[in-house]
Specification:
The chain is mainly α. About 25% of the residues lie in helices and about 0% in strands. It starts with 19 loop residues before the first helix and ends in a 19-residue tail after the last helix. One of its GO terms (molecular function) is protein kinase activity.
Amino acid sequence: GILKDKTAVAVKTCKEDLPQELKIKFLQEAKILKQYDHPNIVKLIGVCTQRQ
């Protein structure tokens, strides 16, 4: 998608009913993705751990 300021974004979700092990892997992946800074990779700008 595209934010109002024209920033390209990709949204990846983690379902609430997943086993804890998979939730931990999701957060570990986010930590790794946050380190990437490349023009061909959408920059990670945040992670939400709750639905609201």
